[in-house]
Amino acid sequence: MIAPAVVAGVLLAGPLVALLVRAPWDRLGELLAGPVVLPALGLSFGTASASTVVCVVLGVPLAAVLAGSDGWPRLLTRVARAVVATPLVLPPVVGGIALLMLLSRTGLLGQPLFTAFGVTIPFTTAAVVIAQAFAGLPFLVLSVEGALRGVDPRFAVAAATLGASPWATFMHVTLPLAAPGLAAGAVLSFARALGEFGATITFAGSLPGVTETMPVAAYIALTSDPGAAIAIAVVLVVVALVVLLALRERWLTGLRA
Amino acid sequence: MSRAAARRSLECAAVLGLLAVAVTGCAEQRSATPGSPASSSPSTGRGPAGTITVDAAASLNTVLPKLARGFESAHPGTTVRFSFGGSSALAAQIVAGAPVDVFAAASTATMATVTDARLTSAAPVTIARNRLEIAVPPANPGRITGLADFADAARTVVVCDPQVPCGSAARRVFELAEVAAKPDSYEPDVTGVLTKVETGDADAGLVYRTDVLAAGSKVKGIPVPQAADAVTAYPIAPLSASRNAALARAFTDYVVQRGAADLAAAGFLPPR
Amino acid sequence: MTGTLEARFRVRRGEFVLDAELVLAPGTVLAVVGRNGAGKSTALAALAGVTPLSAGRIVLDGRLLDDAAAGFVPPERRPVGLVLQQPALFPHLTVQDNVAFGLRTAGAPKAEAREQARTALDEHGLGDFVDRRPAQVSGGQAARIALVRALVRRPALLLLDEPLAAIDAELRPALRGTIRGVLDSFPGSAIVVTHDIADAEALADEVVVLDAGRVLQRGPLGVLRAEPTDPLVSRLLAGAVPNAGSGP
User: Are B106 and B196 part of one and the same domain?
Assistant: First the structure.
């Protein structure tokens, strides 16, 4: 028991430790403020925040629909849940290809968009946000759905008999009671958005300040400027750790409330 | 390069190599343990035998396997395996100690990172050259006629990132043509550029002429005069890390001596 | 006086079928007694509009609330108050905001709703708890707060589901007295679901005995005691049938 556990610990923590040990700490500030990292840093945090908002706005209703899906045919529920969870297990590049098929200029939706309005989505910051939302949405939906299902249905009954419409019941009773799950889902989808690479590079492209997010910049810098790549990697690792630690705190406060 | 800088870059390369090996899981697949039948030198003395791994630039991924089939039938008992990828990433893996027998790169600069680390067992030989060409969707919706259109902000154009060989070649071409290109994306490899042209999201992209030919009817090529002065060379060399040096050298020689026809058929230019 | 109820309906839940006939004169308090699974809570759910009818209709003060064939008034638009066994106070709101909730849904401005809520809580001797969270009050206090929360909406019909079941036995008589006082001054009708005859005795004008989804007998407690029509009725009234069985 102990030996495999130690190996597992090393497997998980080892690469992170190595990254931190070998990071060019003396040049880190200079690298982070440099022309490669700084625009990517700003773009990444901006797009990840935007995609988290998209995830919340679209994901909470979807989670509510799924949480109320008990009366559906079982196959339909299963398919719906599988579709929601697919981006979790899909290779991100495949997600990017799928997004291209949908939203590229020749895509199912992209073509009518382009011919009708002249709108092109790839190569725009919006494309980055879409790719990130695609990747982050499952985290939010599954987390919120679980939280909504965990809310005692008697609160909704009580609210209804106190004159609250289904919408008011959801907004003022059920959703606030699911707030810890919503917070956790939002933080997880933010973290996933920040780390999104495969779908972004495939679907959105890579242009500094427009579509070149931190992971994309790290990948491209890898061969020519490893220092910059590692500096970005350090930022992403630190953000991931902070997010997960914050998440823990939020869970605790959420449960205490 | 100062010693500290050299050490730092080696360390970085080592870390990245470790990550790359761990991520692709190719360590196990590639490791030719000493004494295993696959990698042991022949005992019959009737020429090379065994298995070698060749890391090669992605643009060689149709030609080299074809040549390898010919090599294998000429030398029964040999197997040549390939790992295709961006040259720069492959070079970084080799410098980090990946157990590879032969390296074929898409630029001399990339090969130089391997020779500088003294990891080749013979001087690299250029087997072919490649030039850039404009790739456009078959219907050419952006009505692209030449390099000048890459400076038009209204058109959607993509190129390789300057940090990879096809991108540095693109930069040279633009310099020669005195075009201030305004790309909408710097893709990490030529496949990324080609994909965006094939889906029609990009009005044009700069790729290798061989990529245009390989893509068949999915894209149309527009030759670029300036590309003739910005060709990229494809050097190949056996690596000193090889556990089957004879086979590595034999395959390298085979490609150098017998590869010309197939390379030309794929659209490559002769070495010189 | 309000609370004229004419409810004759059937509710089907899987295998279980409830056939209920609940007719109330204005201002009466009816106790519904029966074993677990008799259909008591289902009857309340149907009256509150939480469970749709399979057949029949519910008319309150001349207004059609539910008709299996013709129409359905959702719970939020019924003049019906419901107090659940576990009082289901909203844990994320203060006691004051819990009581104000049902006033806000009726359109009262926030300040006004909160003010009314405070006054109501004061009237019921709960003024000390306005700023507390539900987790910070006792079970008995929570039950009384839930009652106030339902009453401030001035329902015509008040439904109480086992109001004392979750309360410690030694505290029950006092709380029972409190509820009695509340019901005495309540202008509408009330239905109290209970399996405890002591509740029926203290709170109700009339008693309905329900079993397996059917009304066994209805009448004043004295009449039921004197002339039970079914052996189960006498056993129930003697307190000889504790919570046997389970079900909806």
Answer: no
Contact C153 A163 (CB under 8 A): yes
Q: What is the mean pLDDT of chain A?
A: 88
Separation CA C207–CA C29 (nearest Å): 9
Range of the domain at B180: 132-229
Predicted pLDDT of residue B27: 34
d(CA B65, CA B78): 13
Beta-carbon contacts of residue C4 (< 8 Å; ≥ 6 apart): C24, C25, C26, C60, C61, C62, C189
Q: Which residues of B touch A224 (CB under 8 A)?
A: 88, 163
Distance from CA of A222 to the nearest CA of B (A): 8
Q: Which residues in chain B have Cβ-Cβ distances shorter than 8 Å to A231?
A: none
Summarised one tens digit per residue, pLDDT across range A226-250 is 788 888 888 888 888 887 787 765 5
| pLDDT tens for each residue of C227-247 | 999 888 888 888 755 544 333
Q: How many CB pairs under 8 A join A and B?
A: 97
Is the Cβ pair C105, A154 closer than 8 Å? Answer: no
Asked whether residue B208 falls in the same domain as residue B178, the answer is: yes
Query: Structure tokens of A127?
Result: 């494309």
ipTM of predicted assembly, 2 dp: 0.90
Q: State the fold for domain C1-39+52-79+181-188+195-248.
A: Rossmann fold (3.40.50)
Taking contacts as CB-CB distances below 8 angstroms, the residues of chain B near A223 are 86, 88-89, 91-92, 163-164
Report helix angle A125-150 to A92-103, nearest 10.
Answer: 110
pLDDT value for C236 = 86
- Please indicate whether chains C and B are in contact, defined as at least 3 beta carbon pairs under 8 Å: no
Beta carbons of B210 and B76 less than 8 angstroms apart? no
The two three-digit tokens of residue C54, written as one number: 């399979």
Q: Does B195 contact A at CB distance below 8 Å?
A: yes
Residue C221's nearest CA partner among C209, C212, C232 is: C209
- CATH code at position B250: 3.40.190.10
